[in-house]
Write a structure and sequence with these properties.
With 338 residues, the protein is mainly α. A two-stranded antiparallel ribbon has the order 1-2. α6 crosses α9. The protein is globular, with a radius of gyration of 20 Å.
Length: 338
Amino acid sequence: MTDAKNDDARRVPAGKSRVWNYHPALPISMSPVFDLPPKPRAALSWLLGTWLRLTPPVSHMFFAVMAYAFLWPAMPAMQEFSWGWIAQICAINFGATVLLASALHLYLFVYSQQDMRLKFDIRPMEKSPRFTFSNQTWDNIFWTLVSGVPIWSAWMVLYFWVGANGWVPTMGSISAAPFWFVAFFFIIRFWQSFHFYWIHRLIHIPWLFKNVHHLHHRNISVGPWSGLAMHPGEHLLYYSGILIHFVLPSHPLHVIFHMFALNLGAVYSHSGFDKVLVRNRETIKAGSFHHQLHHKYFECNYGSEEIPLDRWFGSFHDGTEAATTYIRARKKRLAAKG
């Protein structure tokens, strides 16, 4: 629905609007990797740019390397189910989630270290009967820790058990296939985007939305704990992206990074702030305005910026008022059908 040729003419600088306390420059853009005609320089810059500054994926990699190097059970120990190594994986996952989500929540919401600067939605976290415990924050913490982290951990336990027994293709060492080892980290990002789009479209089918996905969409103005506040059925689908590792040769670090990206990435993307400021300096990209638009308008931006599936399938909201008009009309059409 958007015309890239007209983007410059429609460009709105970052700032406030009647809808948003803050928005990035509009219209928002997608990854240039799939642009036609191809833009190799822009695509390469985008691919490498993720890793050359402090970004959420770099943070995920840091968590993954630390976990694998110092905390992860040895593969031979995981050949048989044992409460020892299973509890070890669960403890690592709980620790990483609580550490990151608590740090962002305390910094941004409890102590308000950057006030409302770069916050998308001006509304605070809510106390409302529609949330579990009538409190948005406690609701989000409950569903994250009682459903999200256990299901995330169960998927990882399953993978490492079958991997340790040699029932799926694995990489015993980095030196065995160094090019694939590096390339697969880039592939994981695109697979994550592709998988998320399709399972997200699935749970927007009216029956599944009403009975499953609605729990997550109670969060309109979001915070760090909102990202994983989902129904158990949605958690099961969300983390099923790990299935790619049952098919393609994977090093343990690939799997840990991928699953941390799914889990910790949701914490960052739902932080509600575009970036984290420390002493008025931007330190790390945090929230996703692309996904914030989904929480406000629902039937748009099902995927992420890595693959422009929303643009290809007519569900892309680029943040402009014209896009809002289009998406509202689209929502009416969908409601009429279903």
